[in-house]
Amino acid sequence: MRNPVPHPPSSEPGNPAALLTDSSGLDGAPGSGEPSGGAGALRRWRVLVGLFLSLGVALFIAQGLLAKALDSVSTERADRQSFVSLRALEDLVQRAGGSGDAVRAVVDSWKTQLPAGSAVRVVAFSGIRLEASTFPEDVGERAAPRRLSREEKPLYDRGQRLRAAVETNREEGSARKLEVEAEALPDGGRLLSAPVEVEGSVVGMVELATAPLAAPLKPSLPTLLLCWLLPLALCAVASFVVRRQGVLVAVSVVALVVGLGAYGSYSLGTLGAEVRGTQTLVAEQVRAMSERAQAVMAERQLATEPALRPGDWDADAYRRPLGLVSPEGQVNESVVSARMEELRSGVSRAITGLGVAALVVLLFIGLGGVHRTVATVVENRTAYLYIAPAMVGMLVLVFFPFFYGIALSFTDSTLYNAGQPFMNLWVGLRNYVEILGDFNIVKRAQDGSLVFNYLNFYYTLFFTVVWTITNVVLGVTLGLVLALILNVDKLALRPVYRVLLILPWAMPNYITALIWKGMFHQQFGVVNHIIRMFGGQGLSWYDTPFTSFLTVLATNGWLSFPFMMVVSLGALQSIPMELYEAARVDGASRWQQFTAITLPALKPALVPAVILSVVWTFNQFNVIFLVTEGEPSHSTEILITQAYKYAFQLYRHGYAAAYSTIIFGILLLYSMVQNRVSRATEAA
Amino acid sequence: MFSRRDGIPHWPLHVLLVLFTLFALYPILWVISIAFSGRQSLAITTLPESPTALERVRAIIPWPETWSASNFTSVMTEQPFGHWLFNSAVIALGTTVVGVFLACTAAYAFSRFKFVGQRTGMMAFLVSQMFPGTLMLIPLYIILVQWLGLGSSRLGLMIVYATTSIPFSVWMLKGYFDTIPKDLEEAALMEGASVGKIFWTIILPLAKPAVAVTALFSFMTAWNEFILAATFMDQEAMYTAPVGLRFFVGGYSQQWGYFAAGSIIVSIPVVFLFLFLQKYLVSGLTAGSVKG
Where does the ABC transmembrane type-1 domain lie (chain A) (predicted)? Predict the structure, then answer.
């Protein structure tokens, strides 16, 4: 076989290189290229710069995290305070019957205690009415009570959504849908809406618009600088005292830990104070609201039964009490402590993670890793310049997706929660356990008969192996036989046969797959026409696993024999004639000639071809996906099409990623075994 | 078995070969006759209620009842197939240019320089060929569609094809560069030529055959690719030819005439390229795998 793209006889050490790199003896022995004079000072600076950068970046990230946490605490506080007011009002409106004059009177006396900038409104569903409102836009002609206007449809829709949510939750006996909606207002305030229930059915809703939220507490900058610069100063002083590099690095590690630890305890303190302060404020709000509610109830002669339960007003968006505040309006210490404990472990986890990352950076810079890396890059800059464009592309679109895919396999990511942060979806090895630990190959159907569970991983693996082996055997046999025939001397029309037989390989294989799918069509397919021609009945090929398998086998067999034929033909034609002549002189039979000359000559060409076609067939997506589509009931699915279906038809991204990772593992194992075997056979 | 000087009669071999050639050609002939039948049906003729043996034989002979090019004209005018072909052509050409450029520079560095990470880089390229497509598909989808907003765009598909074809191209080109004698470059270096100049004026012209093969290979991969295109292109106007062809016979539509005509239009350039290329492909493929 002519080989226009020859490969050199493997990469012997020092083979093509060393031409354009200057070989002045300074090869890449780590660290040997450093100048020896002033190395001590250089090392000292390295440690200090490392500490400066690693501690700085870690503290900067920690500061950002803290700011975010404080922000969410402050939002939570504002939400919970308004929640208490809203729920208290809801309670009163409920007692007033949900609509009518009593409700207006309640809102009237309620508005005196509303802080400036906030407003409430009550909507009754019967008659689609705005019962009462203190919103600034509802004055004059638009003052309540009145029918809701057309442009206020969103208001009505919100009420109906809340009603539906309450009913759904009641039917299912669980909190599945939010019973309170909260949205941000353009002026920075929040609008909260809650349903009003009278005698078990939702008759309307109350809404509360709050004044703009108070700005959240900002983490203090001086603390940050103190935690950053003080350890650095200590380390700098130490660097003049300590002479040994190892000790200095140890000192810098201690300084890093101290700096980060100090900042960790500062953030825990700030956060804790904010959280505790929130509980006190909410408890105060509960007490104030309950007093006010009692007063309104007495004033307006509302029903006092059942008694008010102010503790329940501090609730989550499903209207489930949080339990942080007792019914009497006192802070519930044990629950708060549990919450603080959770907070503490969260903070310490974040700080530890940051610390480990910072430590790695510090050691990398401090021990000269960066220095050496820069030196290497500078030394080989031409080579790296040439590789960079390809490498950047590979990193972004090949290696990053690969590792991202593996990370994805440890989550239960789906299409619907793709926006959530990674750690929230983390499920560890669950996907793998689910795939590999599922041995239910046979399951019992409803009528008691046993059915194959074609979705089982081991069944699919088994089918994939059967598919690969049968296809490769079929392809090699057909290809070899045809090559042997075409190799016969002086056979007429040989080039014509050769070109025609290669055609199946030349057609794009997705087209081929669709053509064969058409040929196996039950009613119009040519295959069934041929069967009928001989008096048989047309089969519906995709109805049983076996016939379905035959269709893909035929398709892929047709696709793959030309490759094997071309490879074998090339090898056969390179056998020198003299060998056969000599064998014949020695009296060897035809069979002996075949086994002693032809087969050994074929081996070097056929072995790689077989290895290659095993991988191709194992991953032959198009044929299975387009011809059988897994029919009937996923029994002719191979691993790769199954993974695709999990990802893009069931949208279980995490599960599909785990499935694909297992496929990758199988292929890697195969290639390692094959490498070892082929090396062993080469050596023999 | 048969070796080249055996005195066995040739006619049984011819019978076998003719039968096999028929088997190999039958699906292709069948597509051609559907394409020229001027109808959308899978069947070549309409069979009566109780067909005679002759009519049954007629139904499997790939020869349409009437010849008509109407499927070709309407697939190009009434259907957006011309647009899909254009998409495919733009993507395949773009992939070829970008992919070959990236592969050439990288392969040159791998072949001519000795540097830290050389072995690792080549190994990484090799291992990357083992990633199953589906493992890459979800992250690629997230990166391309959700992060970069390149869903249903030619550019996105072009970038993906170009990068994923790099490893194979680099392995092929590096092998060829290794065979180019270094004396030439040394001489040029003595004359004071820069590395860039050597690459452009000496290496690339000498490596023309290998570069051409790599380019054709990149083109064919992009032209024939189906899964990525089907996943990323969800607007009908941005389909590539493979996705569009599937559209004719997937789901509930059964426009086999359009499919057959489109298949022929798509296949002709590929088949010719392929027949021209095949011996290079075989040696490239098997030589690469022996080394791995």
Answer: 461-674
Contact B155, A386 (CB under 8 A): no
Beta bridge partners of A191: A183, A209
* Rounded-to-integer distance, Cα B172 and Cα B167, Å: 9
Residue in B56, B128, B138 nearest the CB of A532: B56
Q: What are phi and psi of B248, to 5 degrees?
A: -65, -35
For residue B19, what are the contacts with CB-CB under 8 A and spacing of at least 6?
Answer: none
Predicted model pTM: 0.67
The answer to whether the Cβ–Cβ distance between A506 and B182 falls below 8 Å is no
| DSSP letter for each residue of A272-336 | HHHHHHHHHHHHHHHHHHHHHHHHHHHHHT----SPP-GGGGSB-TTS-B-SSB-TTS-B-HHHH
A43 touches chain B (CB under 8 A): no
Query: In this complex, is the C-beta atom of A422 within 8 Å of any C-beta atom belonging to chain B?
Result: no
User: Per the domain annotation, does B17 fall within a domain?
Assistant: no
ipTM of this complex: 0.86
Which pLDDT score, from 0 to 100, does residue A554 have?
92
pLDDT in tens, A452-496: 778 888 989 999 999 999 999 999 999 999 998 888 877 778 888
pLDDT digits 0-9 by tens, A277-327: 888 888 888 888 888 888 888 888 888 777 888 888 888 878 888 878 777
Beta carbons of A21 and B114 less than 8 angstroms apart: yes
Q: Could you give the domains of chain A?
A: 63-244+279-340 (3.30.450.20), 468-651 (1.10.3720.10)
Verify cis geometry, omega within 30 degrees of 0, for the bond prior to A306. yes
3-state DSSP assignment of residue B286: helix
The answer to whether the CB of A244 falls within 8 A of the CB of A222 is: no
Mean pLDDT (chain A, rounded): 82
**Residue B198 maps to a domain:** yes
Q: Is the pLDDT of residue A38 over 60?
A: no
Average pLDDT for A647-660: 86
Judge whether A672 is closer than 8 Å to chain B, CB to CB.
Answer: no
Task: Indicate the number of domains in chain B.
Answer: 1
CB contact under 8 A, B175 and A404: no
Q: Give the tokens for residue A524.
A: 């119009």
Extract the tokens encoding A530: 């041929």
Q: Quickly count: other Cβ atoms within 10 Å of residue A358's Cβ.
A: 26
Residues B121, B148: Cα–Cα separation, whole Å: 27
Domain harbouring B209, CATH code: 1.10.3720.10
CA distances from A115 to A106, A110, A210 (A): 17, 11, 8
Q: Of B160, B249, B289, which has the smallest distance from its Cβ to A612's Cβ?
A: B289
Task: Say whether residue B29 is in contact with chain A using an 8 A CB cutoff.
Answer: no
Measured CA to CA, the distance from residue A483 to residue A658 in angstroms comes to 42
Are residues A442 and A450 in contact, defined by beta-carbon separation less than 8 angstroms? Answer: yes
Residues in chain A with CB shorter than 8 Å from the CB of B169 are none
Give me the domain span that covers residue B194.
71-289
Residue B47 in domain: no
Per-residue pLDDT 10s for chain B (292 aa) are 454 445 667 788 888 899 989 988 999 998 898 888 888 877 777 777 777 777 777 777 878 877 888 888 888 888 888 899 999 999 999 999 999 999 999 998 888 888 888 888 888 887 777 777 777 888 888 888 877 888 788 898 898 899 888 888 888 888 888 888 888 888 888 888 887 888 888 888 888 888 888 888 889 889 988 888 888 888 888 898 888 888 888 766 778 888 899 999 999 988 888 888 777 766 666 654 444 3
Whole-number Å distance between alpha carbons of A438 and A461: 13
Q: What is the pLDDT of residue A31?
A: 39
Kindly state whether residue B20 falls inside one of the protein's structural domains: no
Cβ proximity of A69 and A275 under 8 Å? no
